[in-house]
Each structure stands twice: as C-alpha cells, then as structure tokens.
Automatic annotation (TrEMBL):
Enzyme class: hydrolase
Localisation per UniProt entry: Cytoplasm
Gene that encodes the chain: rnr
Record PANTHER family: DIS3-LIKE EXONUCLEASE 2 (PTHR23355:SF9), RIBONUCLEASE (PTHR23355)
PROSITE patterns for this protein: RIBONUCLEASE_II, S1
A cellular component annotation (GO) from this entry: cytosol
Catalyzed reactions: Exonucleolytic cleavage in the 3'- to 5'-direction to yield nucleoside 5'-phosphates
InterPro entries on file: CSD, CSD2, NA-bd_OB-fold, RNase_B_OB_dom, RNase_II/R, RNase_II/R_CS, RNase_II/RNase_R, RNase_R
Major subcellular location class: cytoplasm
Family statement: Belongs to the RNR ribonuclease family. RNase R subfamily.
Keywords: Cytoplasm, Exonuclease, Hydrolase, Nuclease, RNA-binding
Protein name, as recorded: Ribonuclease R
C-alpha cells in the first residue's frame, strides 16, 4: 500500500487524559482553560466548555489542584520515578519498558525486588548522566501479570518447592505442607501465588490442580493450556445449558430470512475439520454476472447475550488449535453440529451476497440473515484436484469418502469459475501492496495414542487461496459498509512494520544476497513480496519467512480503524469465523443491529472487548506454538541415533541454533560442545569463528547434527555438531 492509512477524525468525548498530560509536562505551572484550549488547538465553544467541565471534574477527583480561581496545576513528584512493564531475560536480569524512554532500562537481579515477568511496576531510574548506561530499581509491584504457574513439585518433610520450566521465571515457589493438596512428589502441578513475604526468598503458593506425571502426553498438553490460563474443558453448567438450546430449523424462523436453499452451495475445508464456519454459493445471472454468496454460520442466533454460554465464549474468545486436539470456544453441540455447515443439512447463516462481473468488479452487495442447504463438502485436496485437472472424478487416494466418486458438472464449473475470479482478486491485492506470507506449516501424523509417526508440511495452494479471497472480500466489504457510516465497529487492524526490526532483518538476509527497499511503505511491501518469491523452496525459506513475520506489527482488534497494512485494506474486520472467534460474533451482532437501524454502539465497551480478544488470541497462539515444539521434541526423541542435515538459523555468544531441513525441528548446539576448535562469537558476521582454523559457522550454513538431549518438559532440543555439509565422513 503506497499511502499510509490515516485514522479518521474522531469527536472528542472528553479531554481529561490530554489535560493531565499537559499539566504533567509542566509540573508546578498553573494553566487556565484558555491556555489548555490553545495547546489542544480547540477554538470552538463546545470544546472549550468540555475543557472547563473536565478541569472541574479532575479537581474534584483531586487529580489536579486549583491553585487560584480558574487556574490548575499538578504538583511535581520526583522525575526519577516511572511506571511501566518488566521484561525478564533468561539470565535473572530484566529490562524496564516505559513509553517515556527510547531505550529499555536495565534492571540488575538484586534490583528486581520481587517483580516477575510482565508485571506492571514503579521503577526508580538512576545513572542518567551523559555517557552512563541508565539502570533501574523496582520500588513497587503495582500489578501482577500472572499469579498461576505450572511446574514440577519437589516435596520435602514439612514443605515443598515448585520449579517451572519457564526460563523467565527466576524463582521457585514455596509450598507450605498444608497447601499441597493431592500432589505427589515429582507431579506436574498448577500453583497459585498467594503471598511473597518481605524476608522470604521465594513467593508462597498453593497447589490448585495436579496435572499428572512429567513427560506423559496428556500431562504436557494440559500443562501448556494451564501455563497460559486456558481451559481444558467446559464447566458442567455451560455444557448443560448448551444441550438445552433449541437447534431445530423452524418455518417461522425461515420466514424471517432470505431463503437460499435452492442455490448451489458447497464448503471447502481441511480434511480433518469438524467445524465448518463458511460456505460458498454460486449462480450465473441472466446479465452474465455471477451471484456469489459467502455464508457464515449464524452463531449469534444461538449464542444469546447475557447467558452463561455467551459469558464463557467471551472469556475464551477463541478456539485453541493444539497439535493433537482442538479446545473449542463453543461446546461441541454448537461448534460441530448446530452451527457447523454440514453437507445435506439446512442451516441458519449470516451472509454477504455479491453480484460480481467477469472482471471481478462488485456491482451489488447484500448483507443479512439467510437459510442455506449445503450440496457438497470438499476437502482442500479434492477442490485442488478439480482446479488442477478439470476432472470431475475424485480419486480414491484423496477422497473424503475413501472411494472415488463423481462431482456434479455444476459444482465443477462453479469451482473453476470461483478459482478464476479468486486469482483476479489476489493479483489485484498484490498490486495494491498486500504482502503474501505463505509460511510452511509443520503438521504431524499421529497414531491412535497421539504419538508422532511422521512430519509433513502444509502448503497453501489454489484451493486455499480461493476460500481466502472470498473470505477477505466479505470481511472487507462488511467493515467498509459500517465504517463509512462512522458507527462503532470491531475492526481487525494492522499497523505498518517496525523499521528497526526491518533493518535488523536486512542485516541477516544480506548474508543470503537479499535486500529490502525502504523508500516508502509501498516499496517495503513490494520488496517483501519479491523476497518471499525468491526464497520459496530454498533452505533459508523458513528462517526468512519467520524473520519477515516477526518484523511485522501484530494484527489486533480495535474500534479505532487504522486499516490493515499487510492486506492493503483501508477497512477490514473478521466476519467469517464466529464458531472459533468471538470478535466475529460481535461483528455479526453489530451488523444486524445497524441493519435494523440502530444508533452507534458504546465505543468504550467494545474497545475493552477488543483488547480482551486480542490478549486471548495471543495466549492461544503461544499455546499452539508450544504444543508444536513439544511434539517436535517428542518426535526427535525417537530419532536420537539418526544424522540430520540442518541449516544454522541463529547465532549467539553461547551457541548456534540449527533447524533440521526435513522436519523444521530447531535445536541448539552450545559453543562449548563444538570440539574441533575454540569458537568465539563475531556479531558483525553473525558467525562463530574458530580461533585456530579461522573457520566460520555462520547463519545459513548447512551442517550435520545428531540429537544430544530432548527435554519434553522444557520443550528444548540440544544437538551435537557432526560436520559441515561439504565435509565427507572419515
């Protein structure tokens, strides 16, 4: 996207925060309302009256002082105290993150004063003279980020300790004898920190749940969920409530909806999916255009606000897709049955229906509640086969039914036309500055006991892109429809990339002969797309894909629309997956409310909900990542005697990280374990340099490794260095 997407101008509800900031920046200096209005560049009567009102409210709340009639100030506090967040390292030191400092402030171990990772704290900053590196000391923990931890319990005669596998948790947790619960020595447990007495070295806690024995499959999966505060099952009262919901399709309800049961409709999903959120309908019109419907499960029809079911769905905010199971946002009776758009069943849906020309111009659009009948369910592999071969007989080896079968000519024709249109939409998006991240996904073939038998890679093909483009169309058009009305809405936003991270990435990819064009945001997106094309299929692809994704800002939910940089959309929302994402449920409710003529909803309320959903999405992503790491370690445990070819994916002073090419498992070789020479870290070359031989082990080099240690609890792999790829075996 060439131009930066600007935030739309917003009417000010109040000026309290801005007044506090102005007075804080000039502590002990008094201002009247005219001076504040001038600084805020507000000269209209309504704004001035609001400023006068806010000054009086702030004075009444004792946040500011009226030093003389009509003049207000904030009394100065020490300029060396700041509030912010602790970011722990794995070396028992930390950095203090605060908006008022360009660089993070170092906190030595002895200055942490019981602060833990991500806690909100008050810090005293010293050594602020020129030439000195500033350091800080935690004065007070204002808010704990987390009080529940997963670890292994070590029971002594009169007490116990719980130690966690989290490298950022620098202390174990002391458990008094009467707080052990049912725990046995060596169990993996969930503990709650209740107190941290002033003279105690460790916080005091209580065992709240026994998860099982270390290394056991279910124990480790439940430990991952518990570590991020994610539930493993639904409360019985929520399950009971869900079972009692009337999920029948009634004539009375159908009469309130647009009936699209006679329109050709089908779904395309992963072969192992059970929750079918979306379906596509296709009809050729007499004028030569196409009517294409994007039909989404009408979850909000069943999920009523104010119920225990809705409260539970909101708290979860998302389904969690672990390596061997799904932890759904909604109970199975809804997620896999009532809401799921299963073949040969009538379903209630919320739809976006478009009239589209041969050249992919949208000439008409309609949003509203519908009823559909899905004629066919495809796996992506089946739809891909039709696209590639134009053949109407699905072969046995990819068939969902296990036997070959014939697809109707109407569905084959619709699939091919939708693919053709999707390719036009995709090309147009790329030309407008969208960034294409088709990162390889690591998947596992699991046996009946959940043990990994093999690794395979999931790669997005035309069938995936077909569905993606029509989902993007619906998401974009719904957001634009409400956004242009200037009403409160839930957007999916994505800011421009972090330039510092892009520069750091440039330093790495230059080693492989690639570069990024930094002239403007549009050039950045074009050069990133070229980079993705250039690395496709090469040994460094996964490393560079990962670096590129990390250089991007994180997408999130907000009522404040700044557009979506990665997609090059000015308006974007999530409308298409309400079975697994709560923001989509909010979008459905707001859309229907506005279609019914409703006034703009409470922005503050929905912004709070957006923040919660973004937070829960982050936790779910971390849990999903940890479950993949766990399964990779488990897989490598069974291949300890095998040699693997890997690519060096990271270089640090303490060792090199190596990603195995055939399965994407990453592990570390510690510098001290490389026996052929004495190696030191050269930061400029991103390499370890041999003191005697001057040989390099640098980013991107291919080397052979063998598993040294596979730690299921810590989810860590250690490798032994064998030789460089070009060296022969002696």
């Amino acid at each position: 996207m060439g131009k930066r997407l600007r935030k739309p101008a917003k009417k000010e509800k109040n000026f309290s925060d801005k007044i506090i900031k102005i007075l804080s920046n000039s502590a002990n200096k008094a201002f009247n309302y005219k001076q504040i209005a001038a600084i805020l560049d507000k000269d209209d009567t309504q704004s001035r009256n609001q400023i006068i009102k806010d000054l009086k409210i702030l004075a009444a709340e004792k946040k500011i002082t009226e030093s003389e009639p009509g003049k207000y100030l904030i009394k100065a506090v020490s300029q060396d105290y700041y509030e912010g967040t602790i970011d722990m390292t794995s070396r028992k030191t930390a950095y203090f993150i605060c908006d008022e400092f360009e660089e993070d402030i170092f906190i030595p171990t002895n200055n942490l004063n019981r602060a833990l990772d991500k806690d909100r704290v008050s810090v005293y900053v010293y050594n602020r003279r020129r030439g000195k590196r500033p350091e800080g000391e935690v004065i007070k923990v204002l808010e704990r980020a987390k009080t529940d931890f997963v670890g292994v319990i070590d029971i002594q005669k009169n007490f116990a300790f719980v130690s966690t596998a989290n490298p950022k948790m620098y202390t174990d947790i002391f458990i008094p004898k009467d707080n052990l619960g049912e725990a046995q020595n060596g169990d993996v447990v969930l503990v709650h920190i209740e107190d941290w007495p002033k003279r105690a070295d460790s916080p005091f806690g209580k065992v709240t749940k026994v998860l099982g024995r270390p290394g056991e499959h279910d124990t480790e999966i439940h430990a991952i969920l518990a570590e991020y505060g994610l539930p493993a099952e639904f409360p019985i009262e929520v399950e009971t409530y869900a079972q009692k919901i009337d999920t029948s399709i009634s004539e009375a309800e159908i009469a309130k909806r647009r009936d699209m049961r006679d329109t050709l409709t089908f779904t395309i999903d992963p072969k192992d999916a059970k929750d079918f959120d979306d379906a596509l309908s296709f009809k050729k019109l007499e004028n030569g255009n196409y009517e294409i419907g994007i039909h989404i499960a009408d979850v909000s029809h069943y999920l009523e606000e104010g119920t225990i079911l809705d409260d539970e769905a909101y708290q979860r905010a998302t389904s969690v897709y672990l390596v061997d199971r799904v932890v759904p946002m909604l109970p199975e009776v809804l997620s896999n049955f009532a809401c799921s758009l299963r073949p040969q069943e009538e379903k209630y849906t919320f739809s976006a229906v478009f009239e589209i020309t041969e050249k992919c111009q949208v000439v008409n659009q309609w949003f509203g509640r519908t009823v559909i009948f899905s004629d066919q369910r495809f796996a992506y592999e089946e739809a891909q086969y039709i696209i590639e071969t134009k053949n109407d007989v699905i072969p046995e080896e990819i068939s969902l039914t296990g036997t070959s079968y014939q697809v109707s000519p109407e569905i084959v024709s619709a699939t091919l036309k939708l693919d053709e249109l999707a390719k036009i939409f995709r090309k147009r998006r790329m030309n407008e500055g969208a960034i294409s991240f088709d990162k390889v996904e690591v998947k596992f073939n699991l046996d009946a006991e959940g043990e990994p038998e093999g690794v395979y890679f999931k790669i997005a093909k035309d069938a995936n892109h077909l569905i993606e483009e029509f989902m993007l169309l619906a998401n974009r058009r719904v957001a634009e429809f409400i956004g242009k009305q200037k009403k409160t809405f839930v957007y999916r936003i994505h800011d421009e990339p972090n330039e510092d991270k892009l520069i750091a990435m440039q330093n790495v990819i230059a080693k492989f002969g690639y570069k990024i064009d930094f002239r403007n945001p549009g050039d950045i997106s074009k050069s990133l797309n070229k980079l993705m094309e250039d690395v496709s299929g090469k040994k460094e692809q996964n490393l560079i894909d990962t670096l590129a994704i990390r250089s991007m800002s994180k997408a999130k939910y907000s009522t404040d629309n700044i557009g979506h940089y990665g997609l090059a959309f000015e308006y974007y929302s999530h409308f298409t997956s309400p079975i697994r994402r709560y923001p989509d449920v909010m979008v459905h409710r707001l859309l229907q409310y506005y279609l019914d003529g409703g006034k703009s909803a409470d922005e503050e309320l929905f912004e709070t909900k957006c923040l919660h959903c973004s937070t829960m999405e982050g936790l779910a992503t971390n849990a999903e990542r940890d479950s993949i790491k766990y399964m990779q370690v488990k897989y490598m445990q069974d291949h300890q005697d095998q040699e693997f070819l890997g690519v060096i994916s990271g270089v640090t002073e303490w060792g090199i990280y190596v990603e195995i090419i055939e399965n994407k498992c990453e592990g570390m070789i510690r510098t001290r374990d490389i026996k052929e020479d004495y190696y030191t870290f050269d930061e400029k070359q991103y390499a370890l340099v041999g003191a005697t031989s001057n040989k390099l082990l640098q980013l991107g080099d291919e080397i052979y490794v063998k598993v040294k240690n596979a730690d299921l609890v810590k989810k860590q792999l250690d490798f032994n260095f064998l030789r460089r790829s070009e060296e022969t075996v002696n």
